[in-house]
Amino acid sequence: MVWLIAIPSLLFIPMIGGVVAAYIWRPLDMRMGAIVLHTLWMPMIAVLGAALFFREGVVCLVIVFPLLWLSILAGAAMGRAWFQRCVVESRRTFLHLGGRRHRIERQSFRH
Q: Distance between CA 50 and CA 83 in Å, rounded?
């Protein structure tokens, strides 16, 4: 029963950290490559803190690092998509195209 609590917190808490980082980085208008590089700092600091303060072993830290980094990166990518400046225009365009497609499909059924 404990693993049901441990797995989501291991994935979702770093993901929330990535979303917060994306919100803070929003004015910088970074591309995805820069976000990938900047998200490397967060798990590095976490692993360094775990090694210094909790005396975690190297093998454990090497195993956990990619999982932390990927979940932080996923959160930062989601946050980047949520907090983009032109999201409203893209949503309008998507809805507009969706409405056109629906009309085209309705017309094709009549013939």
A: 31
pLDDT in tens, the chain (111 residues): 565 666 677 888 999 999 999 999 988 888 899 999 999 999 999 999 999 999 989 999 999 999 999 999 999 999 999 888 655 555 555 455 555 544 544 454 455
Q: How far apart are CA 108 and CA 111, in angstroms?
A: 6
Burial 15-32 (b: 16+ CB within 10 A, else e): bebbbebbeebeeeebee
Predicted structure pTM score = 0.70
